[in-house]
Amino acid sequence: MHKPALSSYQYEKFGWAGIQLDIPTTWELSGLSGDEKTGYLRLDDADMPRLELKWAHTRRKKPDLHATLDEYFKLIRKTYKKGSELSFRRNVNLIKEQDFFEGRTVLGFSWKGSIRANGLIFHAGKRITIVQVMGRLKENWRPTVGRIFQSIADRGDAPLTLWSAYGLKLGVPKAYKLERQKLLSGYLLFTFVAKPMRFQGAIRLAKQVGNRLQKTNGSVGNTDFSSSAKGRLSIERYGPAEVLLGDYKGAPNPLEAWFRAKYAKAIRGYGFEVTSHTDSEDERLTLIGEQTRLYDGVPLTPVLMLDKLSKRTTLVFHLWRCKHSNRIYVIQSIGYADAQSTAQQVAQSIECHEK
Q: Residue 69 sits in a domain of what CATH number?
């Protein structure tokens, strides 16, 4: 069976943990570990591993990249087939354009066994990144290697961080850090968390008032304001939509009926305003609600002051059914002031089907 050359593939933008690069559209995420500070991921095609990416936070202004590369070579020897001959090279010139080196310390390398790999290790800002592309010995892969390496960028300071997995691409405000992910064939989940600084004074006052109430009124104990100190954001993709909505065909709005059943626990204690609209044949719903507080009925002056200082927690859901891809997307945002704009911003960054 004839296999297309790497150079003939189409490309798309891939992003993870602030790192972006162009990859062939046939490569998919196959391995993942760590977090935004230190982590690892691997991309495979139908035949073999194609790209490995490692990143780590560093406090050193001039880290020893050669020492880091030595450790990486040791790891390759350890994980490679025993008895196979491996040859390594460093100081390999893989990038011709000088603009690539601005703000970066870069070291190129390569190795060869039964397969071969070209790679870069570079230091920029507070992060060391290693990227290597793997191929068969007789594969014409220079155009692909050049395309990938030239495109790689550390976008940690960009307003939105790009996250990609299995055709889902989303932009998330950089204040939100990835907490966990679940990547399954019929379900994707990204959960992010952010700690807004603007309300830290109000949160401290909330804790003080809560402690007073706990001492004077046992029924108002266990007042926990720590969870509301965090802005939370989750993005979910379900499929196939036709199967999921099959039990709700008789409802006036099957999508809303499915949502209220699926998220009954999450929306408990909130009163929602529901807006329904269509956008390019995609049915969309927006639900905005505010949570009631335990001390709403307590007539204490400090509590009234607190209510003015700190806004009530807002929970926003933005969901839609994409008829082209037969999937359901659910964005959930909870916070003080930015929940609605955050949910809308993330929703606008997602292209659920080709236009």
A: 3.40.1000.10
Same domain for 133 and 270: no
Q: Measure the CA–CA gap between 140 and 118, rounded to whole angstroms.
A: 13
How is residue 300 written in tokens? 């204490």
What one-letter code names the amino acid at 43? Answer: L
pLDDT digits (tens, 9 = 90+) for 267-292: 887 778 888 876 667 889 999 988 65
* C-alpha distance across the termini of the chain, in Å: 32
Asked if the structure places residue 190 within a domain, the reply is yes
Say if residue 192 is exposed, middle or buried (CB neighbours under 10 Å; 0-12, 13-18, 19+): buried
Q: What are the angstrom distances between the C-alpha of 89 and each of 15, 66, 118, 238, 291?
A: 28, 12, 9, 45, 60
Query: Rounded CA gap, 36 and 58, in Å?
Result: 12
What does the alpha-carbon distance between residue 332 and residue 151 come to, in Å, rounded to a whole number? 32
Domain co-membership, 87 together with 20: yes
- Residue 10 shares a structural domain with residue 82: yes
- Domain range for 218 is 179-349
Report the length, in residues, of the chain: 355
DSSP output for 225-240: -TGGGSEEEEEEEE--
pTM, to two decimals: 0.81
Tokens of 53: 């990416």
CA–CA distance, 257 with 261 (Å, rounded to integer):
6
Whether 136 maps to a domain, the answer reads: yes
As a 3-state breakdown, the chain gives helix, strand, coil percent values, each rounded to 5, of 25, 40, 35
Asked if residue 165 belongs to a domain, the reply is no
153-154, strands of its sheet edge to edge: 11-16, 19-24, 153-154
Across the range 320-330, mean pLDDT stands at 95
Query: Is residue 80 within 8 Å of residue 86, measured between CB atoms?
Result: yes
